[in-house]
Specification:
The protein has a six-stranded antiparallel sheet, with no helix packed on it. Strands 5-6-7-8 form a four-stranded antiparallel sheet, with no helix packed on it. The protein has about 160 residues and is α+β, with helices and mostly antiparallel strands. The model has no long low-confidence stretch (mean pLDDT about 85). About 20% of the residues lie in helices and about 30% in strands.
């Protein structure tokens, strides 16, 4: 039996099915190649987190008076000057990460009550260890530089 177009009825259905499957296959191939191309372009622009520097210029040694403790809020660090030299002491409580306050004689955590000696050793409260101390160096321009990525022993001092 022939239809008006001259093809048997079953043959015309096979061509339509074949054309449909070809179009689906072509669409899948195009989508796959598009995704690969987008991934390749995205690869050229990696995710980079531009974090602030861990090195902090704090000024010359003469900026800090003898026997003072100076808080640098944006980096959460205290600069302590004693006769032995300078110390950079973290202002982050070792218990749960609150910012400690300098009371004039001790560091005090307002969250859970930890109390630290002026050199950062724990004397009361739930804090498990001393406050971290950071390395201090002198830059070429005469300013002191605190390196927040270098934790040092609490007994070390920078001598200006």
């Amino acid at each position: 039996m022939s239809n008006p177009g001259g093809h048997p009825a079953g043959e015309q259905e096979d061509m339509t099915r074949r054309a449909f499957l070809g179009a689906v296959g072509f669409g899948a191939l195009t989508a796959t190649l598009g995704a690969v191309a987008i991934g390749g372009i995205r690869y050229m622009f990696p995710n980079v987190l531009y974090e602030p520097s861990n090195r902090l210029k704090i000024g010359g040694p003469d900026r800090f008076g003898a026997g003072t403790v100076t808080f640098i809020a944006d980096k959460k660090v205290f600069i302590r000057r004693v006769p032995e030299g300078f110390q950079a002491i973290s202002a982050v409580c070792t218990h749960l990460g609150c910012t400690v306050n300098w009371t004039g004689t001790t560091f005090h955590c307002p969250c859970h009550g930890s109390v630290y000696e002026p050199d950062g050793k724990v004397i009361a409260g739930p804090a498990p260890r001393t406050l971290e101390h950071f390395s201090i160096e002198l830059a070429r321009d005469g300013q002191m530089v605190v390196d927040l990525s270098k934790v040092i022993d609490a007994s070390e001092f920078y001598k200006a």
